[in-house]
Specification:
Elements: H1 5-11, H2 17-32, E1 40-41, E2 44-45, H3 56-61, E3 72-73, H4 74-89, H5 103-122, E4 131-137, E5 140-144
Antiparallel strand pairs: 1-2, 3-4, 4-5
């Protein structure tokens, strides 16, 4: 489970209705479900979730201290939000996708879109950062710069993050 779905949401307008309905519903579920069952944390949507992987290496490598792990990438938040918006906007055109007329799926996608935006707005001070992580303290996820955490075993201790906007 990961945020790579944002590419498909953003770039494609499939006409395969059963596939589209299943895909947007699955994506909405992943966005709405709290990590570790889904992708949502209070500091953003994590880009990868190894919870459903069958190999123990997935959990060992996809951590909150790995660049391709359970971290938040700002551009993926933006692309995911815009992709959901594009798909929902298709409901206002002449050729309405089937998911728009499915009350359960349509409501799920709208709730995911709104929840995602609530999370983005709650973390607006970090959006100029390329990537950030979290620690779980006091019953919630807390923002932590990715480079502040020790690297996963067997990886480099050097984290290079390009902060072109002068954020955190």
């Amino acid at each position: 489970m990961n945020t790579d779905d944002c590419f498909r949401l953003f770039l494609l307008n499939t006409t395969n209705q059963p596939q589209l309905t299943s895909f947007v519903n699955q994506t909405a579920n992943n966005v709405r479900r709290a990590f570790p069952a889904g992708l949502l944390t209070s500091v953003g949507v994590v880009v990868a979730n190894p919870a459903y992987g069958l190999q123990p290496e997935y959990a060992a490598n996809f951590t909150n201290s790995a660049y391709h792990g359970t971290v938040v990438w700002s551009w993926q938040l933006a692309m995911l939000a815009r992709g959901l918006e594009r798909q929902l906007d298709r409901c206002n055109h002449a050729q309405v996708p089937d998911f728009c007329n499915d009350a359960i799926v349509s409501a799920n996608v709208k709730m995911a879109y709104n929840k995602l935006w609530d999370t983005i707005e709650a973390n607006s001070e970090y959006l100029s950062d390329e990537v950030w992580s979290w620690v779980y303290e006091n019953g919630d996820f807390q923002f932590t710069p990715l480079g502040a955490l020790p690297p996963p075993p067997g990886t480099s201790a050097t984290v290079v993050v390009f902060d072109v906007f002068g954020g955190h």
